[in-house]
UniProtKB/TrEMBL annotation:
It comes from Homoserinibacter gongjuensis. It catalyses: tRNA(Ile) + L-isoleucine + ATP = L-isoleucyl-tRNA(Ile) + AMP + diphosphate. The keyword Cytoplasm does not apply. One of its GO terms (molecular function) is ligase activity. Residues 1-600 form the Aminoacyl-tRNA synthetase class Ia domain. This is Isoleucine--tRNA ligase. Pfam families: Anticodon_1, DUF5915, tRNA-synt_1. Gene3D superfamilies: HUPs (3.40.50.620), Isoleucyl-tRNA Synthetase, Domain 1 (1.10.730.10), Valyl/Leucyl/Isoleucyl-tRNA synthetase, editing domain (3.90.740.10). Residues 455-475 are annotated as: Disordered.
Length: 994
């Protein structure tokens, strides 16, 4: 509609653990061993089948929700063209020195037997869940020359850990360099671990002694603090002291540098003892600290998280099952000072929802820290919506970027294109970035059973060749078994979807100075993708192209279930989408999402009432206006024309208002702010239906007012084009009904220059509408139906545009005899001034935090009337200026017959609610008109059909009918009217033609 072509290719994310888990569920298997027993080829065929199983359902769903998507020219991450671009990207990173193999501690899912990237732990809040574990404090007797020199021989260092299962691989203890440590002997009750004599002395941080008083044998914290020995030590002084190892499972494996106190900056005293147990294989900080001291990594668990035979006491047990027997062993050996239940926020696998562990694994990494500065610079070129995400959640994540683990020891995914020599005596590594390179070196391509090139396992694994660096000719080059992290696929999407760089290079990069399609103009996903899709695309775009992956990104909030929790199929806490589509329509759901706070980064609770609200506020008013137009246009047999030159005040107001609407909606959509665009369309629907159409009924009734027909046609046609992106289905139906054209979505976007400018008229009419709305609100609040006429409404202190010329309009809208203008803010009408007063009510809860104890002074002054309104409309109370939200102004009246309503900015409306017998009779007559009109509709009559009308009722009703016979006949198109009491004499008369 704006003259740009948008390629809406549907994309399928097909690889990764979610697809594998679904295949395993369908096959009834649970372990990697079962996968390998059935064969990788058979398993991957099942994974492929599972991800494509719901293809038609997806196509039906997307089409039903009115997404304009090309399914015929879609792309899938399992396509060989996509995968070739992915291995090209890896190859390029390797050439740049940004891809490397390392042995690091990573978040590890023992259930899925694969590591995760750190960013996967930060995508969603529910990755971290509260969990109860055991924390233990264990004794480590200090030994050796340095311990003796410091007088610490046989003193027990108290180390704290929340992972007792890692104690079999204890390699060191860590202390903070500036933390103060003290020695405390066992108290009168004896230490909890049962040690006695000289051996019952304990080393811990001074800040933590009080919390260990009972465990150390003291009656209270004061007694424990008083027992601290005189000499104190900093952590820096304690570095290098040796201790007796806990167990000897891995005594030889750790080497000579193990079992000493290491100094580490990360140690703190907020929890525990200020001395931290170190297991290099199961803690990121542990590994770094231990590696610096020359202590190797030793693994005690297999890939499934179960203990190896080297730890016979718990061999075969899973890590969490081993805690209890290990704690019992500590207690039996008098090494356990304290055991507690420890509740903490703990990471879980976002795919299988099991608790993770940290485990040292061999993995390939991308050196993101090497490019994070450039990533930060390129981030400044991106337009983020909301704007605060740029330097907030995304910017901070980039600034603290860590190496990205990109390899997974799984099966269904793009292969890591690395071949290694199978003989360490002749080391060699080859990395491939294309099918052509593979065919060049291996003399063939990996092909599946159909003979087609296929980069999946096991076909890619079958490519081997002699090692060129081995003169014996015995060793071979074999591919490493790992596949790439599925997030690598996601980050490659911008270029891999078009098989770059093997095809579409000019389309992607541009040519002869003309820009290409990289960066993308616009992408959208939820806020968690700042650490997922947005992030990995930015990493690869920076590393490969030195430019952003996207120009504009809308990072919306999270859509929650009706209970405020994350949507869950098991909880059934959200309305069924198909039912919503069938009952309310896809447009209703689309409007609900695009008009809500979720687009601005807030969370959105999905409720059926919220979805239906858009139907009531926009869709029904729009359809009602369209139906009204077609009803009268067909009745008059009139074919409307597109015109914007009517001079009628209502027409000119609506046309000028439409110009403003075009400008406003265009501006908001250009800013990616669909909630404000939706608000503008919603407000205009109110103007169109409840003001213009209602105020113009008589003009359409006559049937020959070309200006009215043409204006309504023009505005409806324009409105449907403006609303088409947000309401694609209902606007299509209306636009085609209005114009007979092919599709509203193939038209040009409206041009505001086509419509007149009349700022003064718009301001004036908007003020008239506001006054009318206030008057109607007063009627509703006092139970006075609109068909009941009232005497008057008074406008007091209303400034701005002069609305006196529209007094007749207000009389008709509010069904009052007269409109009284009282221009003075305090009232020129002294009688009214005496009965209307304003009262200031202070919101203490809102004002209290700002004023503190002075809020009571303000409250007393407001009650005493010691306040005034300043020139900007805000109140000053006892010298304190109040801000919006800290107060309310209420109008009160001593006359119960007056109803009062504030207007925005200034002034108020006073409605006389007295109902005289004369007014009541006219109101009854208008009720009769309404009843007859409903009867006409129920009888299926056309709007122009004439009727003969007979009315009966009680004496009061008949009197009211007789007093307003001409009104009733004219409104109902009655050619004759007979009235009378039931069973009594009736009065008949012929009526003049309406």
């Amino acid at each position: 509609m704006r003259g740009k072509q948008v390629h809406r290719r549907f994309g399928w994310d097909t690889h990764g653990l979610p697809a594998e888990l679904e295949a395993m569920r369908q096959l009834g298997i649970t372990t990697k061993g079962q996968i390998e027993a059935m064969g990788i080829g058979a398993f991957n065929a099942k994974a492929r089948e599972s991800v494509l199983h719901y293809t038609q359902e997806w196509q039906d769903y997307v089409t039903r929700q009115a997404r304009w998507v090309d399914f015929e020219n879609d792309y899938k991450t399992l396509d060989v063209t996509f995968m070739e671009s992915v291995i090209w990207a890896f190859s390029e990173l390797y050439k740049k020195g940004l891809a490397y193999e390392g042995f690091r501690v990573l978040p590890y899912c023992w259930n899925d037997e694969t590591p995760l990237s750190n960013h996967e732990l930060r995508m969603d809040d529910d990755v971290y869940r509260m969990r109860q574990d055991q924390s233990v404090t264990v004794t480590f007797p200090l030994v050796g020359e340095k311990a003796e020199a410091l007088g610490l021989t046989a003193v027990n260092a108290l180390a704290w850990t929340t992972t007792p299962w890692t104690l079999p691989t204890n390699a060191a203890l860590a202390v903070g360099p500036a933390i103060e440590y003290v020695v405390v002997p066992a108290g009168p009750a004896g230490a909890a671990n049962g040690l006695e004599g000289d051996s019952a002395r304990f080393l811990l941080a001074a800040d933590t002694v009080a919390s260990y008083a009972k465990d150390l044998g003291y009656p209270d914290a004061a007694a424990a603090l008083a027992a601290i020995e005189p000499r104190r030590f900093t952590g820096a002084e304690l570095g290098g002291i040796r201790y007796d190892q806990l167990w000897d499972y891995y005594l030889d494996a750790y080497g000579p540098e193990a079992f000493q106190l290491l100094v580490a900056d990360y140690v703190a005293t907020g929890e525990g003892t200020g001395i931290v147990h170190q297991a290099p294989a199961y803690g990121e900080d542990d590994q770094v600290t231990s590696a610096a001291a020359g202590i190797p990594v030793v693994l005690s668990l297999d890939d499934g998280g179960r203990f190896l035979p080297q730890v016979p006491d718990v061999a075969g047990l899973r890590w969490d099952e081993a805690n209890k027997p290990l704690v019992q062993k500590l207690r039996a050996e008098k090494r356990l000072l304290q055991v507690k239940s420890y509740e903490h926020s703990y990471p879980h696998c976002w795919r299988c929802r099991n608790p993770l562990i940290y485990k040292a694994v061999s993995s390939w990494f991308v050196r993101v820290p090497d490019i994070k500065e450039r990533m930060g610079e390129l981030n400044q070129q991106i337009n983020w919506v909301p704007e605060n995400v740029k330097d907030g959640q995304f910017g901070k994540w980039v600034a603290n970027a860590r190496d990205w683990s990109i390899s997974r020891n799984r099966y269904w995914g793009s292969p890591i294109p690395v071949w290694k020599s199978d003989d360490d005596a002749y080391p060699r590594i080859d990395v491939y970035g294309s099918l052509a390179e593979l065919e060049r070196d291996f003399g063939m391509l990996p092909r599946d059973e159909k003979g087609e090139p296929n980069l999946h396992r096991p076909y890619i694994d079958e490519l081997t060749r002699p090692n060129p660096d081995d003169p014996t000719g015995r060793s071979r080059m074999r591919r490493i078994e790992d596949v790439l992290d599925v997030w690598f696929d996601s980050g490659s999407m911008p270029f891999a979807q078009v098989h770059y760089p093997f095809e579409n290079r000019e389309w992607f990069d541009g040519v002869d100075g003309e820009p290409g399609h990289n960066p993308a103009d616009f992408i959208v996903e939820y806020i968690g993708q700042t650490r997922g899709w947005f992030y990995v695309m930015h990493v690869l775009a920076t590393a490969l192209f030195d430019r952003p992956a996207y120009k504009n990104v809308l990072s919306h909030g999270i859509v929650l279930g009706s209970d405020g929790q994350k949507m869950s199929k098991s909880l059934r806490n959200y309305p069924d989408v198909s039912e919503v589509f069938d009952r309310d329509g896809a447009d209703a759901m689309r409007w609900f999402l695009l008009s809500g706070s979720v687009i601005r980064g807030g969370n959105l609770i999905v409720t059926e009432e919220g979805i239906r609200q858009g139907v009531r506020e926009v869709m029904l008013p729009l359809w009602s206006s369209y139906y009204f137009f077609t009803l009268y246009a067909n009745s008059a047999d009139y074919e409307a024309a597109r015109r914007t030159d009517s001079s009628h005040p209502l027409d000119r107001y609506l046309l000028a208002k439409t110009r403003e609407l075009i400008q406003e909606v265009t501006r908001h959509l250009d800013d990616f702010d669909t909630p404000l665009a939706a608000a503008a369309l919603r407000d205009f629907a109110e103007v169109l239906t409840n003001w213009y159409v209602r105020r113009s009924r008589d003009r359409f009734w006559v049937g020959d007012d070309r200006d009215a027909f043409d204006t309504l046609f023009t505005v409806l046609e324009t409105y449907t084009r403006l609303a088409a992106p947000l309401l694609p289905l209902v606007t299509e139906e209306i636009w085609r009904g209005l114009t007979g054209g092919r599709s509203v979505h193939l038209t040009d976007w409206p041009d505001p220059a086509e419509f007149p400018i009349d700022t003064e008229l718009v301001r004036t009419m908007d003020r008239v509408r506001e006054v009318a709305s206030a008057g109607l609100a007063l009627r509703k609040a006092h139970g006075l139906r609109v068909r009941l006429p009232l005497d008057s409404i008074t406008l007091t202190g209303v400034h701005g545009p002069d609305i006196r010329p529209f007094s007749d309009v207000l009389c008709e809208e509010l069904n009052v005899r007269r409109v009284i203008f009282n221009d003075s803010a305090r009232g020129e009408d002294e009688d009214q001034d005496n009965i209307v007063s304003r009262r200031l009510v202070v919101n203490a809860r809102a004002l209290g935090p700002r004023l503190g104890k002075d809020v009571q002074t303000v409250i007393r002054a407001s009650k005493a009337g010691d306040w005034e309104i300043t020139g900007d409309g805000s109140p000053v109370v006892a010298g304190f200026a109040l801000e919006p939200g800290e107060y309310e102004l209420e109008l009160t009246s001593s006359d119960a017959n007056l109803a009062i309503h504030f207007l925005s900015g200034d002034g108020y409306v006073v409605l006389d609610t007295v109902v005289t017998p004369e007014l009541a009779a006219e109101g009854l007559a208008r009720d009769v008109v309404r009843a007859v009109q409903q009867a006409r509709k129920d009888a299926g009559l056309e709007v122009s059909d004439r009727i003969r009308l007979t009315l009966t009722g009680d004496a009061d009703a008949v009197a009211a009918i007789e007093a307003h016979r001409e009104l009733i006949a004219a409104e109902t198109l009655a050619t004759s009217l007979v009235s009378g009491e039931a069973g009594g004499e009736r009065r008949r008369s012929a009526m003049p033609p309406p």
